[in-house]
Amino acid sequence: MKFSSTMKAAAAGGAALLILTGCAANESAPETGDETASSLTGTLSGAGASSQDAAQQQGWIAGFQTANADVTINYDPSGSGAGRESFQKGAVAFAGSDRAFKAEEITAGPFDACTTSDIVEIPAYISPIALVFNVDGVDNLNLDAATIAKIFTGEISNWNDAAIADANPDATLPDQAIVPVHRSDKSGTTGNFTEYLAAAAPEAWTAGSVEEWPTDITGGEAAQGTSGLVEAVKGGVGTIGYADASKAGDLGTVSVKVGDKYVPFTPEAAAAIVDASPLEEGRTANDLAIELDRTSTADGVYPLVLVSYLVGCEKYEDPANAELVKNYFEYIVSPEGQEVAAKAAGSAPISDSLREKASAAVAAIS
User: Fold this and answer.
1) Segment 229-249, tens digit of pLDDT
2) How many angstroms separate the first and last alpha carbons of the chain?
3) Among 54, 150, 240, 280, which is most exposed with the fewest C-beta within 10 angstroms?
4) pTM
């Protein structure tokens, strides 16, 4: 593949990397016959998960376009649900989604950009979901799943509630109302958050795993998108919400109880729970949906994690889209692509074993 040879040449030595960097900086085309030159051209459009936005814009798109000067990639962080819908309608060539398509959704289809209903789903972006809060004088809290669930259902409504105070004896908790903030849009982050609550605290959270916030849970605030939720927490008083950890900034954060310990979010702890979880059964060979073990008590895992997928066709109606998607996905799952995402968004690079599966799935795109 054209980009594969570029990647291999770049990895072969620093000289090749210098050539690429120099070309980008001088905005001049490489000499004819230069092995590092890319002949890829065209525009590739994707949409979906806002959690991926920093990795997409500042990491993957920037890196890929530097090596492929005649390619333009557009990514609209419209949200997971909107991205999947746009992909199904053929409005974009690929989607970013904070959950895999459900088996029944694939069966129902349609996927207008594809020649078949077989899709490729790559778990390419792994990140903790941070519980972020804004309580004056408090930077960190320990919470278990049941307490988190009760906060978001409104059963626990004050910051000095005994359930919070008992787990945080060294914190000075105010006599202040809790204002939970949830996403107003259809969100894969909400889906992952509620899936964790449903698995780890089923008695306290009975709404199941849902991407749209349950209408029967009243109170609190609603905010659009990851950035909107974070801004609502930051601008409020006594607020708490959930967001991709790359957006936590200087807000207070929660360590989640796993077994007998409270585990803070880290990329390494997020990657650990993914590697400890199996692929879902009943999927095609190139649909790498992961069945996360949200109730794991293994040492060092952080179960409140978001696995965000790249979604594409296995066979495209438009050969130009197939070529661009294949090369772009290949870059994203490469060690280089995972490293630039980690620097841009604080995500956890996928493991070598997962990369092997992902690379095979990408190779099937045509």
Assistant:
1) 999 999 999 999 999 898 899
2) 11
3) 280
4) 0.75
